[in-house]
Amino acid sequence: MENNFVIFIISNNRPNNIITLKTLKDAGSTIPYYIVVDNEDKSIDNYIDIYGENIIVFDKKKYYNNIDNFNNLGVYRSTTYARNACFDIAKDLQKEYFLVLDDDYTAFKFRINKNLNHPSGFFKVKKNIDKVFLYTLNYYIETDCKSICFSQGGDWFGGEKQFGSPPKRKAMNSFFCSISRRFDFFSTLNEDVNTYMGLGKTGNVFLTIPFIQLDQMPTQNNKGGMSDAYINSGTYTKSFYTVMLRPDCTKVSLMGRKNKRFHHLIDWSIAVPKIIDKKYKK
Amino acid sequence: MKQISLFDDNKSFDTENIYVQNINVPLYRPRGINPNIRELFDTRKYNRLIQKIEESDIDSNIKDFLKLAATRHIVFNYEKIADYYANSNQKIQELFEDNALVVIDFNKAYSKGYINLAYNIANQYFENYGE
After folding, report:
1. Which residue among B76, B103, B117 places its CB closest to the CB of A275?
2. Residue B52: what are its φ and ψ, rounded to 5°?
3. Which of A66, A91, A114, A252 sits between 20 and 30 A of A265, alpha carbons compared?
4. Exposure string (b/e) for A142-181, b if CB count within 10 Å is 16 or more?
5. Looking at the DSSP assignment, which residues form a beta bridge with residue A183?
6. Which helix (H) or strand (E) holds B27?
7. Tens-digit pLDDT profile for residues A255-275
């Protein structure tokens, strides 16, 4: 299993600031990694100078033309295409399993302690993160999930009261994937939400594993990446893409305390088919 | 409740019948009620859209398209669908499964595997931070 697993870090215009890579190394990661950049990134040469053979370049326009982008603006500032390219890259590398990460993670944190309770305080993974990844990958392999991911800060609004809740049927940010369970991300914005909502309604399972949380640079404070796209369109457009896709269970809502922003709000009781124990099957 | 050792050398935990207080697996537990079939879906918005389309003065082929698009507003209550499934006969259950209205945890991969994952990550917490 270990030999059939790689990490892809998707990056854009941040050759000197791939925070995720430092975070992985600090946590003891030895799993092979590749940094995935598109062929229109003006800093490709800088990436290659710094990371050499660990850089993989993909044809962005090819992937743009392959999916429904949810608009006809011809603007393709999106992580969608890199995420889709990762399936083909893994296939070329002859790796069955891969983990797709963004480039701005500052920590992977434990959200469960040795007593199976929520830890009090900040406990980042300091060593052996390979084991965390491989145990999670093992769960992914045992189930037939399309993809699973680690929790992120937003999953913990409300604090540790969230601990113990069943895993959410969503997948954002970090994606455990398999070339045998290929799926396409779609839409230029909110592509992670649209993907699990679009595919989830027909029984494709996506899960968020709450035992680990990744920390990320605030989107609009970190230059490069998707920050510009969000600043330009605000978050209403992004959120409404999901309403277009799933008007049966999604609406646009306000989120946040001081600085409120638009966000999609999903009624999960009507969003995806439930997973039930085999004992109910006659 | 069966007692288990968290840091046993055997990493495969017997979680078959273990209740773990803080860990809720990603399974829905049907409530033992048998809802009426009409409770499984909500067509109110769909009906409003259909009425408006029917009353409009547009080409029939556009009407046909809009009626298909209106089905996107039909709400399916997947909790009640799972409740209904649990009370149905084999023939109905198979048709529900074919239609992906429920997902069956056949080998307890979702549930048992999830508990194992919790223990294994907890074990990594211990290796990182000890007590």
Report:
1. B103
2. -65, -40
3. A66
4. bbbbbbbbbbbeebbeeeeeebbeebbbbbbbbbbbbbeb
5. none
6. none
7. 777 777 888 899 999 999 999
CB pairs < 8 Å spanning A and B: 167
Q: What is the pLDDT of residue A253?
A: 86
* A contacts of B124 (beta carbons < 8 Å): 110, 125, 128, 131-132, 135
CA distances from A175 to A148, A192, A231 (A): 6, 10, 25
Q: For B109, how many CA atoms within 13 A lie in the half-sphere containing its CB? A: 16
DSSP symbols for A71-105: --S----SSHHHHHHHHHHHHHHT-SEEEEE-S-E
- CA of A223 to nearest chain B CA: how many angstroms apart? 33
Q: What is the mean pLDDT of each run of 10 residues along chain B (131 residues)?
A: 39 49 89 96 98 98 98 97 98 98 95 95 95 70
Tell me the mean pLDDT in the region A74-98.
94
Which A residues 120-159 touch B at CB under 8 Å?
123, 125-128, 131-132, 135-136, 138-139, 142-144
Instruction: Work out the pLDDT band at A150, boundaries 50, 70, 90.
Output: very high
ipTM for this model: 0.91
- Across the interface, of B74, B103, B118, the residue whose CB is closest to A248 is B74
- What the block records as the tokens of A187 is 């839409």
pLDDT at B6: 42
Q: What is the CA radius of gyration of chain B?
A: 23
Which ranges constitute the DSSP H helices of chain A? 19-26, 44-51, 60-64, 80-93, 129-142, 191-200, 227-233, 236-245
Cβ-Cβ contacts under 8 Å for B65 (sequence gap 6 or more)? none
A212 at interface of B, judged by CB pairs closer than 8 A: yes
> Is residue B128 less than 8 Å (CB to CB) from chain A?
yes
Q: Is A6 in contact with A36 (CB distance < 8 Å)?
A: no
Window B:74-113, CB contacts with A under 8 Å = 74-79, 81-82, 85-86, 88-90, 93, 100-111, 113
Least confident of A172-186, A201-215, A246-260: A246-260
Asked if B111 and A277 come within 8 Å (Cβ–Cβ), the reply is yes
As a whole-number percent, the residues of chain A with pLDDT over 90 amount to: 75
Return the closest-CA partner of residue A151 out of A204, A90, A182, A107: A107
**Chain A residues inside the 8 Å CB shell of B117:** 135-136, 138-139, 209, 211
